[in-house]
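Quick one from the shared queue. A colleague (R.T.) flagged SDR family oxidoreductase as missing a structural entry in our internal table.

Convert sequence to structure tokens.
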Amino acid sequence: MRILLVGATGFIGRHLLVALTQAGHQIVATSRQVVERPLPGVAWQRLDLRELADEPTSFTWPPAIDLLINAAGELSSDLAGMCRLQTAGTCALFDLASQHGVRVLQISALGAGMQADVPFLASKARADDYLLQLGRPAVVLRPSLVLGPGGTSSAWLQRLSPWPVIPLLNNRAQLQPLHVDDLCGAVLALLRNWPVQSTVLPLVGPQAMTQGQLLDQLRHAQGWPAARYWVLPAALSRLGAILGERMGWAALNPQTLRLAQRDNLAGGDALASTCGFRCAPLSSRLHDWPQAAQSCAMALQPLVLAVLLLIWLGTALVCLGPGFDWGLRIMAEAGITGWPGKLAVISGALLDAALGFGLLLRRWRQPILHAQIGLMLAYSLTISLWLPHYWFDPYMAVGKNFAVLLLSLWLLWLSPPPDKRHG
């Protein structure tokens, strides 16, 4: 079968791409960015659903397509952009599929159409309804929380899993998580047994569990005992959600707060009767993911970020405050006195502050870390050439620059490029 896979570089799309090619299907895969990694049996085309929403002729429909699978989507605090992606752009995509007489498999989300106050689900539901009223053969697959390597929610849970005491937004609401391998299995089963009529099918794991029980399964897979859980006070959760919305956090914002406080359950019989597929228990899938070493690195990542932020901002405050005269003396030792010395100290402090605050902006974090590493190397080289006696400071202040340098390198290597965060 020749399949157009939209969102092929996202979490679900990447796994579907592998599963479909291994099953022998020919794939035309799309991504917002130009992809330069050829795969056997895969042709790539650029497609940005936001652009498609504005200009439906911006995408050239590939020839001889038998099926469209739409795996594009994101849970974002940019509500307007998310709705353009998941509603306007997706509906334009469905129009193209209808014009070419192609059946559609839409990867939606469990709860779409039932939680109108969650924009992520509401925008998915509008696209689902639009697809079903077109009158073309279509299946809307609504999975529960999908876990596996590369997922945003998966990474957040993996980051929490190493801690013996874990804060949660809620530990009463239940969900039915499934592994991404089961989602791929369900898609392949539907391709073998396509339903006679267009339908909406929930895709859920066989076990209902709380967030704490889910994390305990992830901990057990990594060789750790059950953790203790602390539910955050409602006021603190709301404050964190507001802050997360302003900072663009995917894991904590008003939408995720609402989702965490509600049951999101369904039955698996409809899918089983349609194509004979049922999801396996999540615990039976946790062999290669998560891994304890990776989870510990991810857990330490925000702490290292906080330490670097404290170092850069602390240095800036000290240089502009109680350490200002000390900075002038160091400049004088290097032969820079008067207003040039004051300007150098103030400029250096402001630069340190800018590099510290820049760490808070995810889209700028990689270039900021590169700049910090370059600046530390420049500082160390300058001191070595003009003020070498500072290497013999009893507190080894210059030598400690290299510890900070290693922390910055470690954090840089753990930070994926911005264009790889979403499909």
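The chain has a mean pLDDT of 93.
The chain has two domains: 2-290, 300-414.
Added to the table.
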